Amino acid sequence: MIIICGRFEITIEFFYFCEMTEDVINEPVSKTANNYTEDNIKTLDWREHIRMRPGMYIGKLGDGSSQDDGIYVLLKEIIDNSIDEFVMGSGKTIEISLSDSEVSVRDYGRGIPLGKMVDAVSKMNTGGKYDSRAFKKSVGLNGVGTKAVNALSSFFKVQSIRDNKTRIAEFSYGNLTCEEEKETTIRKGTKITFVPDPEIFKNFKYRKEYVERMLKNYVYLNPGLKIIFNGEEFYSENGLKDLLTDNIDEEIVYDIIHLRGEDIEIALTHSRSSYSETYYSFVNGQNTTQGGTHLSAFKEAVVKTVRDFFNKNYDPSDIRKSIISAIAIKVIEPVFESQTKTKLGSTDMGPDLPTVRTFVNDFVKTQLDNFLHKNPEVAQSLEKKIKEAELERKELSGIRKLARERAKKVSLHNKKLRDCRQHYNDQKSEAKLDTTIFITEGDSASGSITKSRNVETQAVFSLRGKPLNSYGLTKKIVYENEEFNLLQAALNIEDGLEELRYNNVVIATDADVDGMHIRLLLITFFLQFFPDLIREGHLYILQTPLFRVRNKKETRYCYTEEERLSAISELGKNPEITRFKGLGEISPDEFKNFIGKDMRLEPVMIGRDTTIEELLEFYMGKNTPDRQEFIVNNLRVDL
Fold first, then answer.
1. CA 360 to chain CA centroid, nearest Å
2. Cα(354)–Cα(522) distance, rounded to whole angstroms?
3. Which of 7-21, 61-75, 397-411: highest mean pLDDT?
4. Which residues lie below 8 Å from residue 327, measured CB to CB, with a gap of 6+?
5. Are 191 and 159 in contact, with CB atoms under 8 Å apart?
6. Rounded-to-integer distance, Cα 209 and Cα 218, Å
7. What would be the CATH architecture of the domain defined by 240-386?
8. Distance CA 153, CA 200 (A)
9. Bridge partners, 105 (sequence order)
10. pLDDT at 32
11. What confidence score (pLDDT) does residue 128 get?
12. What one-character-per-residue DSSP string does 495-553 give?
């Protein structure tokens, strides 16, 4: 992984990105193919169905290198139950331990009723959340989550403590292996321990950074809740205000506006230099990364309230430019668009309650308007920021129009982009999480990837050469520079990430000095103009093998010198060794091994110890003595 952080802490780790996909075997049609009998009808039990179609329950699988990989969904499903106990007023502390592959979650809530404990974790359509009187604003309402974790774990243990008794049950791949009940004096609550099935989650590893981000969101949304993760405590007193404070890494125009009401909380400010819009949205504690009806209503409400307050018909893009905001609402029996709950589909707050749009609009209109009247200095700063955005937009309008027309014409015959058939912004796509675009260097590399890619979900964008160093330049350069403009159009991110066309944006360059330089220039481009692409975990670096070691029976691809030495030792005397100098040297037949289920990706992340402005200035600004000293002190020579 690449963590973009301060000048003295750049770390790189390598991870396998093993996306599990179903094999489709095309067999010749036999003479008996039309014999459709009762034998063709099969009934799967709950375990078999979850294990055969895990994507229906937890989204994509992966190995933990992406924050939306299945192992994090498993963890989240268990934590959600503990959060619901806290929301219901029972249990203020959750303890989570994670070591290698084993995860343990302990809460101090009411504990699962002992007589129904086994059923609650192993029988579909069984759970306490069907009774909306007890869990009317729960995160999970379909009674599937814990069962999915159970079925997809090689080891699963549940313990419930209540009424001075405890019941413990252990499962393997969803099958009950042992159960006992006894007297106890320990505190009430529930403890669940599980190990994801390594046959389904190949080479998986939990990333601390992703787990911590998830836990921080939980405490932001539940002030007063304490989560202890491997001995480290997470706690928040100010909710969404703390969320913005901890995540803002740039100068802001005015202090964070923080407003709370029954079933709704918002926080917002504007960045002084960012070009993007940043939104954090939640429903019943669930991080709805793809937004939904509540986020759309919030954007609309902010624009309308600001227009009414200043009595001026400002353009919505000028009001929202550089906004950094968060919204959390609670809905009775929410409807999400999938089991992974990344986008709210509900239009109403609940039975006999107003629509989500009306509820959010009314709250923002009243509370934000009142705040601006009571804080004229904030209102003044906000209007000044809007006018600056308006001026810049008008200056760019001519260039933007020409750039869009050029991109539209080129898109009809765009040699730079070899598109795929499914896209991330297609709500009907079953493989949207798999959608990937490879940004390559030159025609030789793009040719190999293009010929070996999966045309359903993998696209290729070819660079002509080294892109421009965009550090210190304005958004104008994105439209004037043909490659930047076409890349922006290909990703569909000009107006934010809502319509992003690919879940994984992968920089695929040679592992030499020039390739590293291109990576740095592209990362600079995204940091400068589209930092949310990195913040939301969409940007990666493709790892390709440095060596091929083979004998007559076996071929090994090695990504490090250590792997090369190991392969030489294991393959016997005098194996053939090939050193790959660039992506263009790898044939399409071989390349398919590196961008399929065994693809290795390094996620690019932004560290918390410096701002983006400071980061870019140090690495991409003038060649200062400080930077020269840093290079000398951190220079590594491979002999």
1. 25
2. 46
3. 61-75
4. 240, 264, 265, 266, 279, 280, 281, 282, 294, 295, 298, 360
5. yes
6. 15
7. 2-Layer Sandwich (3.30)
8. 9
9. 96, 192
10. 47
11. 54
12. T-STT-S-SEEEEE--SSHHHHHHHHHHHHHHHHH-HHHHHTT-EEEEE--SEEEE-SS
Tell me which amino acid residue 179 is. E
> From CA 194, how far away is CA 104, in angstroms rounded?
7
**Full 3-state SS string of 127-190:** CHHHCCCCCCCCCCCCCCHHHHHHHCEEEEEEEEEECCEEEEEEEECCEEEEEEEEECCCCCEE
Instruction: Give 125's contacts (C-beta < 8 A, 6+ positions apart).
Output: 143
Domain boundaries, the chain: 70-208, 240-386, 414-544+581-634, 547-579
Q: How far apart are CA 76 and CA 71, in angstroms?
A: 9
Long-range contacts of 496-501 (CB under 8 A, 24+ apart): 496/276, 496/277, 496/532, 497/530, 497/532, 497/533, 497/536, 497/538, 498/290, 498/291, 498/425, 499/425, 500/424, 500/425, 500/533, 500/538, 501/423, 501/424, 501/425, 501/435, 501/437
Counting every residue written for the chain, the total comes to 639
Interval 498-557: pLDDT, tens: 889 999 999 988 877 788 888 889 999 998 888 889 888 899 998 888 888 988 888 888
Element (H, E) at 374: helix 356-374
Q: How does pLDDT run across 102-130, given as a tens digit for each residue?
A: 999 999 999 999 998 998 898 875 555 54
On whether the 70-208 domain is CATH 3.40.50.11720, my answer is no
Structure tokens belonging to residue 556: 């090994």
CA angle 206, 502, 511 (to 5 degrees): 70
Q: Which residues pair with 437 in a beta bridge?
A: 459, 505
Q: Model confidence over 566-611: pLDDT tens digits?
A: 889 888 888 888 888 777 677 777 778 788 877 888 888 876 655 6
The CA distance from 457 to 444, in Å, is 21
Model confidence at 382: pLDDT above 80? yes
Residue 291 has pLDDT above 90, yes or no: no
Q: Are 17 and 600 in contact (CB under 8 A)?
A: yes
Least confident of 39-48, 296-305, 515-524: 39-48
More confident residue, 639 or 136: 136
Read off the tokens for 377. 């200095």
Looking at residue 624, its pLDDT comes to 66
**Pairing, β 226-229 against β 93-99:** parallel
Ramachandran area for residue 218 (φ above 0: left; ψ -120 to 50: alpha; else beta): alpha
Q: Tokens at residue 394, please?
A: 């008008």
In terms of Cβ atoms closer than 10 Å to its own Cβ (0-12, 13-18, 19+), residue 105 is buried
Cα 392–Cα 393–Cα 395 angle in degrees, nearest 5:
65
Confidence (pLDDT) at 607: 67
Please give the CATH architecture assigned to the domain spanning 414-544+581-634. Answer: 3-Layer(aba) Sandwich (3.40)
